[in-house]
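An instance as discussed:

___
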Amino acid sequence: MIDKILAHAGYRTGLMGNIGTKIGGELLHTDINTQAPHRLQANLRKMKDLSTDYCVMEVTSQGLHLGRVLGCDYRIAVLTNVTQDHLDYHGTMENYMAAKGLLFSGLGNSFSPDRARRKFAILNADDDASAYFRDLTSAQVITYGIHNAADVRAAEIQLTSRGTTFMLHSFSGTMAMELKLVGMFNVYNALAAISTALAERIPLEAIRQGLADLTSVPGRMEVIDEGQDFLVLADYAHTPDGLDKALSAVREFAEGKIITVFGCGGDRDRTKRPLMGQLAAKYSDVVIITCDNPRSEDPVRILKDIERGLHEHGACEASYVLIEDRRQAIVRAIEMAGSGDIVLIAGKGHETYQLIKDHTLHFDDREEAREAIRQKMMAGRQ
C-alpha cells in the first residue's frame, strides 16, 4: 500500500518483502523475507543507482535479531500489530517484542529542525503493544486507529465482498476513502500506509487515488475468479491472528457457507495449531484440515494437533475432514462449494512451493484452485 501511494505520487520506489524485491520496476523472487546483509545492501545499492526515491521494506523480527539490517538508516518505522508468531525462534512473546523493538530503538535519539532528516514511528493506537514501542523511540510518533483516539482515524466503515469504504479523519484533513480490498484488517493496513504517506507530506488526494488503484496484493485475500458462482480466496494467514482476521473478514459479508482449507507448518510452534483449529471451527461451516509445509515433521501429527482445537470448540465430526494431500484438499473444497458460498484457502498465499521432508516442491494454492474450478465447471457443462 505504501509503495502504491508513493508511486502514484510520482516517486520512484523499491520494495523488499516476502512477495519479492522490486528494483527499477522489476519484481525479483527472494527465498527469505529480510535478506542477509550483503544481498540486502547490494539491492539497496542497485536501487540507488536507478535514482530510486524510496525503499519500502518489510523487516522481520528474526532479521532484526540476527542483525541483517544493521547499518540501515530508517526514516520511518511502522507497527501493524503484535500477535503470537515465531515463538519457535524467539521462545517467548517478551523476546519477540524485544526483537521487533530494535527497529524503533534503532531510529536513534537525535532531533533535527530539518524535516527531511526527521524520523517517525507509526503506531497502531488500538494495539496494546504500541505503548511498549512508544517508550523505545524518541522519534516523532504518529498514531492510527479506529476505536481509540489517534492522529489518523477511520469512521463510517462499510465492508462488502467487493471492497471497503470509510471516512478518513487526519491532521491533514478529512476524505472519503475506497479500497478494492476486503476486511477490517485492510482498513488498519490502509491507515498505517496513510499515516506513513502523511509523514512524507503526500497530498490526501494522491493517497486516495493510490489506494483506490490497488486491486489486490498477491496472496492476501486474493480472489481466484474463473467465472464460478462462488467466491474463492487465497490468503497468507498462517498464525492464529492472521486466520482470525481473514475469517472474520469473510464472515462479515458471507451469505452462503464458509469452507476453510488450512494447515500448519511443521517444525514450528505447536501451540498455535489447536488455536487455529478453534478459530476455523468458530467461523467456518466446513473445515478441511490439510498440510502446509510439513518439513521433517509427521504430517499426521500436525493435522491431529489442529483437530484437537476443533474438538475443544465443540465441532462435530460432520463439520470437518482431514485430508493430508493439499491438492486433494483444495479440490474437495471446490467440489463442495455451491452458489454464493466462500472458499478460503489459507496459509500459503503467494508462496509457490511446499516443503516436504528435504524436498522443495512446486505448489501454488492459486494454480490448484483455478484448475479445480475449471474442472468443476467443465464437469457441470457435460
User: Anything to note?
Assistant: The first strand starts at residue 13 and ends at 17.
